[in-house]
Amino acid sequence: MASRRRTLLKVIILGDSGVGKTSLMNQYVNKKFSNQYKATIGADFLTKEVQYEDRLFTLQIWDTAGQERFQSLGVAFYRGADCCVLVYDVNSMKSFDNLNNWREEFLIQASPSDPDNFPFVLLGNKVDIDGGNSRVVSEKKAKAWCASKGNIPYFETSAKEGTNVEDAFQCIVKDALKNEPEEELF
Protein backbone atom coordinates (compact mmCIF):
# COMPACT_ATOMS: atom_id res chain seq x y z
CA MET A 1 0.00 0.00 0.00
CA ALA A 2 1.25 3.49 -0.86
CA SER A 3 2.23 5.57 2.12
CA ARG A 4 -0.07 8.50 2.84
CA ARG A 5 2.70 10.37 4.62
CA ARG A 6 2.62 14.05 3.85
CA THR A 7 5.75 15.89 2.94
CA LEU A 8 6.18 19.63 2.94
CA LEU A 9 7.75 21.19 -0.15
CA LYS A 10 8.84 24.79 0.21
CA VAL A 11 8.90 26.83 -2.99
CA ILE A 12 10.04 30.46 -3.21
CA ILE A 13 8.85 32.77 -5.99
CA LEU A 14 11.23 35.62 -6.87
CA GLY A 15 11.29 38.40 -9.42
CA ASP A 16 10.84 42.12 -9.87
CA SER A 17 7.85 43.97 -8.51
CA GLY A 18 4.82 43.71 -10.81
CA VAL A 19 5.86 40.66 -12.87
CA GLY A 20 2.91 38.59 -11.60
CA LYS A 21 4.31 36.43 -8.78
CA THR A 22 1.20 36.79 -6.60
CA SER A 23 -1.12 36.36 -9.59
CA LEU A 24 0.65 33.14 -10.67
CA MET A 25 0.40 31.75 -7.14
CA ASN A 26 -3.29 32.68 -6.86
CA GLN A 27 -4.07 31.23 -10.29
CA TYR A 28 -2.39 27.94 -9.34
CA VAL A 29 -3.78 27.59 -5.82
CA ASN A 30 -7.22 29.24 -6.14
CA LYS A 31 -7.81 29.26 -9.94
CA LYS A 32 -8.49 33.00 -9.62
CA PHE A 33 -7.12 36.13 -11.24
CA SER A 34 -7.65 39.72 -10.14
CA ASN A 35 -6.86 42.87 -12.07
CA GLN A 36 -6.42 44.70 -8.77
CA TYR A 37 -2.71 45.21 -8.27
CA LYS A 38 -1.55 45.37 -4.69
CA ALA A 39 2.16 45.13 -3.93
CA THR A 40 3.18 42.30 -1.61
CA ILE A 41 4.67 43.64 1.61
CA GLY A 42 7.44 41.40 2.92
CA ALA A 43 6.27 37.91 2.11
CA ASP A 44 3.15 35.81 2.07
CA PHE A 45 2.51 32.15 1.42
CA LEU A 46 -0.23 29.84 0.24
CA THR A 47 -0.38 26.09 0.56
CA LYS A 48 -1.83 23.51 -1.76
CA GLU A 49 -2.12 19.76 -1.39
CA VAL A 50 -0.63 18.06 -4.43
CA GLN A 51 -0.33 14.46 -5.41
CA TYR A 52 2.73 13.31 -7.27
CA GLU A 53 3.55 9.68 -8.07
CA ASP A 54 0.98 8.42 -5.53
CA ARG A 55 2.39 10.52 -2.71
CA LEU A 56 0.70 13.47 -1.07
CA PHE A 57 2.59 16.72 -0.60
CA THR A 58 1.83 20.04 0.95
CA LEU A 59 3.26 22.62 -1.39
CA GLN A 60 4.07 25.78 0.54
CA ILE A 61 4.53 28.60 -1.97
CA TRP A 62 6.27 31.69 -0.64
CA ASP A 63 5.54 34.87 -2.50
CA THR A 64 8.09 37.57 -1.79
CA ALA A 65 8.04 41.33 -2.31
CA GLY A 66 9.81 42.38 -5.49
CA GLN A 67 11.01 45.68 -4.05
CA GLU A 68 14.66 45.97 -3.06
CA ARG A 69 13.78 47.36 0.34
CA PHE A 70 12.41 43.98 1.41
CA GLN A 71 15.35 41.90 0.19
CA SER A 72 16.97 41.88 3.65
CA LEU A 73 14.08 39.61 4.71
CA GLY A 74 15.44 37.00 2.30
CA VAL A 75 17.49 34.84 4.64
CA ALA A 76 14.57 33.78 6.84
CA PHE A 77 12.26 33.06 3.92
CA TYR A 78 14.74 31.32 1.63
CA ARG A 79 16.18 28.84 4.14
CA GLY A 80 14.96 25.31 3.62
CA ALA A 81 13.56 25.99 0.15
CA ASP A 82 13.19 22.95 -2.11
CA CYS A 83 12.84 24.92 -5.34
CA CYS A 84 13.12 28.55 -6.45
CA VAL A 85 10.85 29.95 -9.14
CA LEU A 86 12.17 32.99 -10.98
CA VAL A 87 9.55 35.13 -12.71
CA TYR A 88 9.91 37.92 -15.25
CA ASP A 89 7.49 39.81 -17.46
CA VAL A 90 8.04 39.02 -21.18
CA ASN A 91 7.08 42.66 -21.87
CA SER A 92 9.82 44.08 -19.62
CA MET A 93 13.51 43.74 -20.48
CA LYS A 94 14.47 45.14 -17.06
CA SER A 95 12.65 42.31 -15.26
CA PHE A 96 14.50 39.80 -17.45
CA ASP A 97 17.87 41.51 -16.93
CA ASN A 98 17.38 41.34 -13.15
CA LEU A 99 17.01 37.53 -13.14
CA ASN A 100 20.73 37.03 -12.52
CA ASN A 101 20.54 39.23 -9.42
CA TRP A 102 17.52 37.35 -8.06
CA ARG A 103 19.19 33.98 -8.68
CA GLU A 104 22.51 35.05 -7.11
CA GLU A 105 20.76 36.66 -4.15
CA PHE A 106 18.78 33.48 -3.55
CA LEU A 107 21.90 31.28 -3.65
CA ILE A 108 23.73 33.59 -1.23
CA GLN A 109 20.82 33.88 1.23
CA ALA A 110 19.54 30.29 1.10
CA SER A 111 23.04 28.80 0.90
CA PRO A 112 21.86 25.40 -0.38
CA SER A 113 24.29 22.51 0.16
CA ASP A 114 24.71 21.97 -3.60
CA PRO A 115 24.16 25.36 -5.28
CA ASP A 116 25.13 24.06 -8.75
CA ASN A 117 22.30 21.56 -8.72
CA PHE A 118 19.68 23.50 -6.79
CA PRO A 119 16.36 23.38 -8.70
CA PHE A 120 15.25 26.62 -10.33
CA VAL A 121 12.33 27.05 -12.74
CA LEU A 122 11.93 30.15 -14.93
CA LEU A 123 8.52 31.58 -15.78
CA GLY A 124 8.09 34.23 -18.49
CA ASN A 125 4.74 35.69 -17.47
CA LYS A 126 2.17 37.97 -19.13
CA VAL A 127 2.33 36.35 -22.59
CA ASP A 128 -1.36 37.29 -23.05
CA ILE A 129 -0.76 41.06 -23.02
CA ASP A 130 -1.51 42.89 -26.26
CA GLY A 131 -1.74 39.58 -28.14
CA GLY A 132 2.00 39.20 -27.64
CA ASN A 133 2.76 42.37 -29.63
CA SER A 134 4.35 44.30 -26.74
CA ARG A 135 6.71 41.46 -25.97
CA VAL A 136 10.39 42.43 -25.71
CA VAL A 137 12.00 39.21 -24.42
CA SER A 138 11.93 36.41 -26.98
CA GLU A 139 11.42 32.78 -26.00
CA LYS A 140 14.79 32.07 -27.65
CA LYS A 141 16.56 34.61 -25.41
CA ALA A 142 14.91 33.17 -22.28
CA LYS A 143 15.80 29.61 -23.27
CA ALA A 144 19.41 30.66 -23.92
CA TRP A 145 19.55 32.16 -20.41
CA CYS A 146 18.16 28.91 -18.96
CA ALA A 147 20.71 26.85 -20.90
CA SER A 148 23.54 29.03 -19.55
CA LYS A 149 22.35 28.30 -15.99
CA GLY A 150 22.40 24.51 -16.29
CA ASN A 151 19.23 23.96 -18.33
CA ILE A 152 16.67 25.45 -15.97
CA PRO A 153 13.13 24.42 -17.05
CA TYR A 154 11.28 27.31 -18.73
CA PHE A 155 7.58 28.02 -19.12
CA GLU A 156 5.78 30.91 -20.77
CA THR A 157 2.75 31.69 -18.64
CA SER A 158 -0.24 33.93 -18.32
CA ALA A 159 -1.55 34.18 -14.78
CA LYS A 160 -4.60 35.95 -16.19
CA GLU A 161 -5.54 33.24 -18.71
CA GLY A 162 -4.06 30.37 -16.68
CA THR A 163 -1.75 29.45 -19.59
CA ASN A 164 0.87 26.84 -18.58
CA VAL A 165 0.43 27.62 -14.87
CA GLU A 166 -0.57 24.05 -13.94
CA ASP A 167 2.22 22.55 -16.09
CA ALA A 168 4.80 24.89 -14.60
CA PHE A 169 3.85 23.96 -11.03
CA GLN A 170 3.87 20.23 -11.87
CA CYS A 171 7.46 20.73 -13.02
CA ILE A 172 8.23 22.74 -9.87
CA VAL A 173 6.98 19.88 -7.66
CA LYS A 174 8.98 17.33 -9.67
CA ASP A 175 12.14 19.44 -9.43
CA ALA A 176 11.65 20.16 -5.73
CA LEU A 177 11.64 16.39 -5.14
CA LYS A 178 14.92 15.81 -6.97
CA ASN A 179 16.94 16.81 -3.93
CA GLU A 180 14.82 14.82 -1.53
CA PRO A 181 17.04 12.41 0.41
CA GLU A 182 16.47 8.75 -0.33
CA GLU A 183 14.15 7.23 2.24
CA GLU A 184 15.68 4.92 4.75
CA LEU A 185 14.33 1.40 4.44
CA PHE A 186 14.16 -0.48 7.72
Number of domains: 1
Number of helices: 6
Query: Can you count the beta strands?
Result: 6
Per CATH, the class reads Alpha Beta
Q: End-to-end distance, in Å?
A: 16 Å
Uncertain runs: none
Task: Kindly report the CATH topology.
Answer: Rossmann fold
In CATH terms, the superfamily is P-loop containing nucleotide triphosphate hydrolases
DSSP strand (E) fraction? 15-25%
Taking strands numbered 1, 2, ... along the chain, how are they ordered across the largest sheet? 2-3-1-4-5-6
- CATH architecture heading: 3-Layer(aba) Sandwich
Radius of gyration: 16 Å
Could you give the order of the helices and strands? EHEEHEHHEHEH
Average pLDDT works out at 86
Query: What class, by secondary structure content?
Result: alpha/beta
Basic shape: globular
> Into which percent range does the helicity of residues fall?
25-40%
Organism: Aegilops tauschii subsp. strangulata (Goatgrass)
Membrane topology: Lipid-anchor
Main location: membrane
Keywords: GTP-binding, Lipoprotein, Membrane, Nucleotide-binding, Prenylation, Protein transport, Transport
